[in-house]
Amino acid sequence: MERLLVLVRHGQSEWNLQNLFTGWRDPDLTERGIAEARAAGRGLKRDGYGFDVAFTSELLRAQRTCSLILEEMALPDVPIIRQRALNERDYGDLSGLNKDAARARWGDAQVHTWRRSYDVRPPGGESLKDTAARVLPYYIAAILPRVMAGQRVLVAAHGNSLRALAMVLDGLNEEQVPDLQIRTGVPLVYRLNGDTTVASKIVLEQDVDAGR
């Protein structure tokens, strides 16, 4: 039984490129982001992975990443489940603001706290703790049972929703998880033990420019 779980943060979005707080806003992928998603699919196919089901958020950048990965893997019939619980962290009043402009307005320390602390919310938004409070119950109820039943599962989502998952999978505490970086378009390949703990983890590095 494989118990395969692959997490992929969406490829670069238009607002990533513009250095904007994105949250639940819905920009598309850039050309670079499309290339990152396709490279992830090529790498997964090259290394012999396959999927029985895919999960993604309700946001376009994650959905397109998921579809492009499956397209590159020649897996058009894999069912895709879209779920709001996997959405990016809601940045509230910061959404749409340039990060450098936010630092100029509120100061480096305050913006760093909003971005990287575990339980401090930006104005009108969610903390990472809030994000985990919706991601983890959905993972336990809907995603983990499929993995434990032997299905090969892809989750294409966002930096913070995946950080919430990786916190549990990698056994990180509240002080460690804010420093966890999840790069766009780089698959994290987990295999789980029978008790749901992690048996192995591979970071599947990609050459984005190889297929362009």
UniProtKB/TrEMBL annotation:
Keywords: Gluconeogenesis, Glycolysis, Isomerase. Its EC number is 5.4.2.11. InterPro entries: His_Pase_superF_clade-1, His_PPase_superfam, PG/BPGM_mutase_AS, Phosphogly_mut1. The keyword Hydrolase does not apply. Substrate binds at residues 9-16, 22-23, 61, 88-91, 99, 115-116, 159-160. GO terms for molecular function: phosphoglycerate mutase activity. The active site is at H10, E88. It catalyses: (2R)-2-phosphoglycerate = (2R)-3-phosphoglycerate. One of its GO terms (biological process) is gluconeogenesis. The keyword Isomerase applies. Pathway: Carbohydrate degradation; glycolysis; pyruvate from D-glyceraldehyde 3-phosphate: step 3/5. PROSITE patterns: PG_MUTASE. NCBIfam families: pgm_1 (TIGR01258), PRK01295.1 (NF002339). Homodimer. Catalyzes the interconversion of 2-phosphoglycerate and 3-phosphoglycerate. PANTHER family: PHOSPHOGLYCERATE MUTASE. This is 2,3-bisphosphoglycerate-dependent phosphoglycerate mutase. It comes from Methylobacterium oryzae CBMB20. The lineage of its organism: Bacteria, Pseudomonadati, Pseudomonadota, Alphaproteobacteria, Hyphomicrobiales.
